[in-house]
Design brief:
The chain is mainly alpha-helical and 154 residues long. The chain has nine helices and no strands.
Amino acid sequence: MTTATARIVLAPRERQIIEGLCDGSTLAAVAQDLTIREGTAAGYLKLAKRKLYGVSDNAAAIAVGYATEAIARPKSLDPDELCLSLEQRQLVPLVARGLRSAQMATELKRPVNIIRRDGRDLMSNLRAKNPAHVVTRAWQYQILTAERVISWLP
C-alpha cells in the first residue's frame, strides 16, 4: 500500500543545502562547499524546513525530503548486510522525527541512559556521523521508508 502526499518543490539552493546535510556534513561545511556564508545557508535551510511540513530538525527535514521526493533519494543498500537490534531499530523513526533522547525515552518507556547507549550503537552500526546521516543510512538500508515518514506528517 502506498500513501500519497503532495510533492514538495524546493528552490535550488534549499535543495542543495538539505542534500549537503545528508552525508553528515555540518551546515558550515555545506556553506563552504557552496561558497556561500553560513548565515545565508542557515536562511535557506530555514525556508526549506518550513516547506517540508515545518519540521525543526535537520534529520526530520531529510526524512521528509526523501519521502516527498523533494531531494534525491540515496542509493539502496542490501538490508541483509546490517545487523541492528530491535531497540536500535525502534529509534530510527524517532530520530527521523527529530526527537531528542529524553523524548525518545518517554515514548519508548525506557531510561534515557539506555536510549543514549542504543543511539550511539545505532550510529556506530550504521556508520553515521550524526542524526541527519542516520536518516540517510537508514533510508539506504530500507529501515526508513516514505510510507513510514508520511504516516507521522500532519
